[in-house]
Write a sequence for this structure.
């Protein structure tokens, strides 16, 4: 049954789950509360073949609820999956990661390393490239953006290009766009993918109450818009109940500023 | 053979300009007592290879580091390591910033005596632009280009384990031994600190010897320092000391690393350091994180 009241975070979790539904038997890695709950929801509903870890060192046959668990909770271990083995999985290509980059550019390249024009003296040092170079050339990747803005969707290239995208100038010898698998971009105002002409960013749906113009305005480069952009489907009550079991401490309420409702109130 | 040494004897084996690999991952199982001992030494111009946490931040803040070879430096729940961030933003460091998996391949190449391992990782990204020494080569077997990830040969590896014996048999019973075995294998000398010193009988049960990830011939020296990974974690004994990392993070904004060292490091023994958190029993009460 379609829910009538839900938070924006819950809407984004349900969209995140759709990213994994046709993946078959791959490791679903959602970094952050909303992507992880999306993967957990997909594994428990649309794609039971998914694999998930305990975010530490074991592969599970059922997703763990997030955060502190009761003393008698037994996680459903399936195999050891420490960090060194994660790379064996990455390079086997049987993985779909969803992460939240600080910058995304028109080529689908992303940045979590550093901000500023001088690499030797960055304005803001962030995490480092982490596993993005390997993830992006090895398996499917989706992006999660909690604050859709021109600061994230930058006009030029990312300050540090951490992940390979559909950039002809950087395409390695022997590779083409078909070797790169960037899936959904889930933001706080819309859902997009990279199926516009020549793998450009394309608007898939806008969240309830959001206009197409707002998406255009908040994106630093051009977004391919097709006629009659649909509204993002509302969660079902069954989905909301499952999300609550995977997030018993309601961490999802703390992921977006002021935990806004999923249906944006009409401005007065 | 008895390989027991003190922390200061181990640090005395290190020299200016060495390339030093540090085991653990972010805020987990870092050989922090050895890091503190290096902070108290005159060592300088080090090249540090690490899945970095406060080990990298502290050594950078203390001016010990010439170059960092890294994929990330993070305290996890504090995503940006404050002192590494400061050193980078002041333009103080040479860096080789590479993918986490490339770092693993570099250690493996060193361990296996190969000059490089070919990989597609890094292609199409700034990793190959920002590291001009990283070569992209043609393959003799296909028409693609490949990144030739060079061997990361280490002069020394510093690793903390939960248990070891005096001959250098080391057990890591934490859920993940991270890349510590590769750090040890990539190094000319591996210096190990352990939370518990055990007799060789400890390793007899098969499930225990399964948690020994390298042969003792690779262990150069063993130092028994209960709590030696604090404030990082060492399962099963203690979790990450989040409250201490928050305090450490505050020093980056207020007081600086000199003030941190004055309070926690300079002129202090490990026992005196631990006494500021209660004692070893109090450290061992720090719970493990649930993710």
């Amino acid at each position: 049954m379609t829910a009538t009241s839900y938070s924006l975070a819950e809407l984004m979790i349900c969209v995140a789950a759709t990213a994994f539904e046709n993946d078959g038997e791959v490791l679903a890695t959602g970094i952050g509360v909303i992507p992880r709950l999306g993967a957990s929801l997909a594994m428990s509903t649309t794609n039971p073949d998914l694999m998930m870890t305990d975010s530490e060192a074991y592969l599970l046959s059922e997703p763990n609820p997030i955060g502190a668990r009761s003393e008698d909770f037994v996680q459903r271990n399936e195999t050891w999956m420490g960090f060194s083995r994660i790379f064996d999985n990455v390079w086997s290509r049987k993985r779909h990661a969803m992460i939240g980059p600080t910058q995304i550019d028109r080529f689908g390249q992303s940045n979590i390393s550093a901000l500023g024009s001088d690499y030797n003296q960055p304005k803001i040092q962030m995490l480092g490239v982490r596993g993005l170079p390997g993830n992006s050339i090895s398996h499917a990747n989706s992006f999660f953006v909690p604050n859709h803005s021109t600061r994230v969707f930058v006009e030029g290239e990312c300050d540090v290009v951490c992940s390979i995208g559909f950039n002809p100038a950087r395409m390695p010898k022997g590779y083409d766009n078909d070797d790169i698998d960037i899936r959904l971009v889930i933001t706080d105002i819309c859902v997009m993918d990279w199926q516009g002409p020549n793998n450009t960013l394309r608007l898939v749906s806008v969240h309830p109450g959001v206009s197409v113009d707002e998406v255009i305005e908040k994106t630093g480069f051009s977004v391919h818009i097709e006629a009659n952009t649909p509204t993002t489907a509302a969660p079902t009550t069954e989905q909301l109940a499952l999300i609550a079991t995977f997030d018993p401490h309601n961490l999802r309420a703390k992921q977006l500023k002021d935990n806004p409702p999923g249906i944006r109130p009409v401005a007065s | 053979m008895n390989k027991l040494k003190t922390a200061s004897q181990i640090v005395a084996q290190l020299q200016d300009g060495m390339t030093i690999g540090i085991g653990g991952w972010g805020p987990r199982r870092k050989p922090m007592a050895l890091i503190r001992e290096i902070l108290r030494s005159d060592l300088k111009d080090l090249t540090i290879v690490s899945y970095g946490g406060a080990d990298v931040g502290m050594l950078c803040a203390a001016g010990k580091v010439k170059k960092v070879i890294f994929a990330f430096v993070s305290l996890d729940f504090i995503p940006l390591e404050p002192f590494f961030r400061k050193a980078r933003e002041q333009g103080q460091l040479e860096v080789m910033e590479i993918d986490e998996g490339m770092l693993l391949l570099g250690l493996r190449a060193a361990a296996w005596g190969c000059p490089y391992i070919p990989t597609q990782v890094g292609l199409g990204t700034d990793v190959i632009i920002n590291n001009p020494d990283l070569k992209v080569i043609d393959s003799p077997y296909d028409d693609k280009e490949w990144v030739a990830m060079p061997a990361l040969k280490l002069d020394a590896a510093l690793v903390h384990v939960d248990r070891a014996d005096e001959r250098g048999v080391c057990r890591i019973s934490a859920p993940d031994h991270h890349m510590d075995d590769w750090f040890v294998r990539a190094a000319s000398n591996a210096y190990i600190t352990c939370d518990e010193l055990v007799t060789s009988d400890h390793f007899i049960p098969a499930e225990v010897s399964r948690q020994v990830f390298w042969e003792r011939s690779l262990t150069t020296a063993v130092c028994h320092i209960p709590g030696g990974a604090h404030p990082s974690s060492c399962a099963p004994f203690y979790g990450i000391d989040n409250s201490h990392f928050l305090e450490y993070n505050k020093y980056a904004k207020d007081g600086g690393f000199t003030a941190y060292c004055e309070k926690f490091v300079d002129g202090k023994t490990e026992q005196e350091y631990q006494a500021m958190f209660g004692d070893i029993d109090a450290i061992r009460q720090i719970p493990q994180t649930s993710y």
Notes: Chain A has a mean pLDDT of 97. The helical segments of chain A are 8-20, 33-44, 83-92, 132-138, 212-217, 237-246. Chain A touches chain B through 53 residues (CB under 8 Å). The longest helix of chain A spans residues 8-20.
